[in-house]
Amino acid sequence: MSETGSERLGWLGTGRMGVAMVERLLAGQSDVTVWNRTRAKCEPLEANGAEVADSISELASADVVFVMVSTSADLLQVTTGEGGLLRSDNLPSVIIDCSTVSAEASATVRAEADALGVQFLAAPISGNPHMVTDGGAAIVASGPADTFARVRPYLQLIAPTVVHAGPAEESRLVKLCHNLLLGMITQALVEVTALAEKGGVENRAFIDFINGSVLGSTFIRHKGQAIVDRNYTPTFNQKMLRKDYDLGLGAARNLEVPMPVAAVVHHLIQTAIGHGLGEQDYVSLYEVEARAAGLTRPEEQ
Fold it and tell me: What is the pLDDT of residue 2?
């Protein structure tokens, strides 16, 4: 029996985030069976004690199945599509989706799960793989309170901060608001850093000052260092952030909430992608700002 109970856990989607999250469950002595479209991505987890399923239907025999995929379409495919979790002969009792997807897609899956007697929890996660590994991620969940209480120990193995936001799709909006703020803060940081740099201040000195002030934060420390190093190795790339801005601004439009700052950042993300930075980390917004400010680097002179 594991520390969190004797339930069999399944995990669908072993990209970089999925792997980091499963490793937290395995470290907590949970029994986890994993599946991914590309089986090779499961091999590091298999080496750490996870079992690997050959199909989604095999995974669906677990008591609780987590899903971690990239898009709304992916979520619908692996749950309600042909061969999906909800099309299997055996059904899990709970599906927990940790992806960042639209409320509409989430509601569709919830309705189909409810009709089959499967409990559904929307539980998107905030953080990148490094933060998950270091125990610095956060999860916001929504769905029936009793379902949340049942699976909360597993969620807390993955992230120390776990919040229940409501009975339906509220967590989807919370996560989108989080990522809208992420982009706005990043754009603010790159703008003031470029201003200081063009005025003759080394960007390292400026970032060090900010980090030692009341404005300092874990976020600015990490992303400020990325700006100094011009290291845009992706933890969350521009295309992924654009997807969340599309969803977030769509939610704002549906709720009739003006988002002027977010709308501008949306265009700047698109500009970065147009400059070929789509696969780079979102802090590469600094490159767009630096070019617009006429800043040149030694190798560009």
Answer: 41
pLDDT for 126-140, tens place per residue?
Answer: 999 999 999 999 999
Q: Which residue has 């559904």 as its token pair? A: 120
Render 184-232 in DSSP notation, one character per residue. HHHHHHHHHHHHHHHTT--HHHHHHHHHTSTT--HHHHHHHHHHHHT--
Residue 51: strand, helix, or coil: strand
Reported as type and span, the H/E element at residue 67 is strand 64-67
Decide: 102 and 243 in contact? Cβ < 8 Å.
no
Shortest CA distance to 56 belongs to which of 72, 76, 34? 34
Contacts of 226 (CB under 8 A, 6+ apart): 232, 281, 283
Q: State mean pLDDT over 280-297.
A: 94
In angstroms, the CA 88 to CA 90 distance is 5
The reported pTM is 0.90
Classify the C-alpha dihedral 120-122-123-125 as positive or negative.
positive
- C-alpha–C-alpha distance, residues 269 and 266, integer Å: 5
Structural domains in the chain, CATH included, are 9-167 (3.40.50.720), 173-300 (1.10.1040.10)
